[in-house]
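Q: For a teaching handout, I want to show students what a protein-ligand complex looks like in token form. Below are the inputs, and the small molecule is fe (ii) ion. Please produce the holo structure.
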Amino acid sequence: MVMIPRRDVEFGLSPESVPRDWCSRDPFDTTFLNALSLLFPEGERFFVESVKQHKNQVTDPELVRAITGFIGQEAMHGKEHRAFNELMIAHGYAEAPRIDRKLKSFLKLVRKVLPPKSQLAVTCALEHFTAMLAEALLRDDRMRREMHESVRPLWLWHALEESEHKAVAFDVYTAVGGGYARRVSIMLLTTIVFFAAQAIAHARLMATRKILWKPWRWGGGVMRLWIYPGFFTRLLPAYLSYFRPGFHPDDRDTRSLLASWRERLFGDSGSLNDRVRVIAQQ
Ligand SMILES: [Fe+2]
Ligand SMILES: [Fe+2]
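A: Here is the structure, written as tokens, with fe (ii) ion included.
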């Protein structure tokens, strides 16, 4: 298992340093990622709780250490994305806190309705999503260049850590006897709910920018995501691999990719060294 350190970072973003259309200088692309960021803090809190609920059933000391690293990393992501989401309010998205609250009450319902093991399966499914997106961002130079330099470090750091801890929830699920049928049926359900939640949040933000009812303002963005270059369509094989009975997140070997990004961001002359206060090794 790869090392999963908790890096205590602080990006200290300010509304003045981040352009309102910070991704591709385009309101569609920017509101898409803003919507994703709005889902992170509550979503990641859910991930942490679903793993924590099973921690006492895990006996492998290496996996226990990995859980601690996972919890530390997700807590930091929540904190920094919350700060980023605050910045959205300053950029005129007054409804951002409402979207966060709606998600919070929805996840409260999910916790009530689903048994703990299925909640953990939801986390495994969403961790597969974040791992796919993270790997795409770390591999695709063009995608990274679309992000304004003020915000790029936040997304790169998050992507690196999502990739580092991509197997933790899955390994806990397996260790506590989680089975195939539950894993794949929850993946199907989660896919629908995730895309619906993302679309609702995105539509709200697009409405604020007054582009929701102007398809000529976002048709190109939809094309880029699904047709050419098809950022999402290209992820389809990786998505489908989750349905193989013997699937494991480490089947996709990202070790050398991670080693090079760890060096670039946090190595001796890492670009993010001035934003890190502590690195807690597990
Ligand atoms: Fe995260
Ligand atoms: Fe994660």
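A: Two things your students might notice: The chain is about 65% helix and 5% strand. The pocket of fe (ii) ion (ligand 1) is lined by residues 44, 74, 77, 158, 162 (CB under 6 Å).
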